[in-house]
């Protein structure tokens, strides 16, 4: 185990305790629709970013397992440095942080499509689908890679229907892809999040994991049992969920050997329309990552898709991921 990973794990126990007792004060608003389907490169909206240390591209991008966790509707400044999110901020300090990363659009669904298909595809959250565009399922299957979407509060394995309680369909792009809808074996890779812990414990995680908390744990709505809440309450609940459910992943020996975890937000607050969807926090976690690295390179969600495929050795990139800036600089 390398030194910066050991340092993080030493702090993890303290953060876990703090997360368990953090106060949960209540709600910020969701994102109103402001359609913007462009995913082509745009000018850097931050002309004076913090300098990037050691910007030489890394050589350790290859991983056996990649995992993506997506939270909801918060700006970079609301997340990074916020004491309501001690676990996520400790990850950001210990591993990699993208300081100049922007979502592609408002509202949510277009961003989820960019993360998995390389294009916004939809302009509203009530887009009915299906989607026949190239996507992660098609390319992962062609490359012989396994995948699974772990969705919190999903009512059953293979469910591709509408919202059910705090489970929100438009946060799960896999429920729209024709590759899934027309193939029951592929649909069965959409599973309730409860399966994640058992897959982790049995070392049976797929090559690609998409992880979506439900609306009470992704910083979108108030936590369960709270009718009204502050924005920090939402973020505290999301961080506690992250600590309890993703903390064991970061501590897992198999992940430490060959795993890459990316944590991002689908979009910023609705008032932030910079580069389409506003600035969001994105954290890169891997034992192969440069410790405490901060990148000021301008990235959007298509670069995350490109990174996940490069890490797995998949060479066909859907949509705008084919020409997106590489994120290799995060790695040693």
Overview of the molecule:
With 332 residues, the chain is an alpha/beta fold. The protein has a single domain (60-330), classed as Alkaline Phosphatase, subunit A (3-Layer(aba) Sandwich). The chain has eleven helices and eight strands. Strands 4-3-5-1-6-7-2-8 form an eight-stranded mixed β-sheet, with helices on both faces. Helix 4 runs parallel beside helix 11 (301-312).
* Share of β-strand residues: 5-15%
- Report Rg: 18 Å
Low-confidence stretches: 13-58
What's the β-strand tally? 8
CATH topology-level name? Alkaline Phosphatase, subunit A
CATH domain class name: Alpha Beta
Under the CATH scheme, the architecture is 3-Layer(aba) Sandwich
- In total, how many domains does the architecture comprise? 1
Helical proportion? 25-40%
What is the string of helix and strand elements? Answer: HEHHEHHEHHEHEHHEEEH
Strand order of the largest sheet: 4-3-5-1-6-7-2-8
Full CATH superfamily name? Alkaline Phosphatase, subunit A
The class by helix and strand makeup works out as alpha/beta
Largest beta-sheet details = 8 strands, mixed
Q: Give the mean pLDDT.
A: 88
- Tell me the overall shape: globular
Separation of the first and last Cα atoms: 15 Å
Number of distinct helices: 11
